[in-house]
Design a protein that fits this description.
Blueprint: H1 2-22, H2 27-48
């Protein structure tokens, strides 16, 4: 069962990698990923920096 989960994660990662390679020249993709990263950072920082 655990190996099926790992295999599924690997398949999804390979598919995502292929999609990124195919759309790597799209600047909107990179801008969107950048802002998604900033959003994750903001949420994480606010969750950990409670006064």
């Amino acid at each position: 069962m655990l190996l099926n989960i790992v295999d599924s994660i690997n398949k999804i990662a390979k598919d995502f990698q292929g999609w990124i390679v195919a759309n790597g020249s799209n600047p909107l993709l990179w801008i969107g990923l950048f802002f998604a990263g900033l959003l994750v950072f903001y949420i994480t920082y606010n969750a950990l920096h409670k006064d």
